[in-house]
Design goal:
Blueprint lengths: L24 E4 L1 H11 L11 E5 H4 L42 H9 L4
Antiparallel strand pairs: 1-2
Amino acid sequence: MLNGILGGPHTITTRGFPELDGAPGGTLESFGLVGDQLAEFGETADLVHRAVCFVPSVSAVSIRDLDRQDDLYADIDELPPEQSDLDDFLLSGNNDPHCAMTSELGAWVLDRLPD
């Protein structure tokens, strides 16, 4: 629901697209950032969710087409390697903030650097 931006309350919907905002993957506090900015100007916002999925895991590792809702929840570890356009990747064990370098991911990157 958008209020004020378009001159009053409006509901905007789509059809035929997977619901990417709730898919597993890296998160970004998109709504939280906007809410915080509004608060700085004395406005209020009803934030139900501060963060959304910023890059779904299946998209980050380039897994097939994402035409159906179920595609967002594919068990990437169980897919044949040829289903990804990447030669090698590691998924974080958590839905971490976008671009967060965890010790798990950092160790994986360091293991792949030349000596």
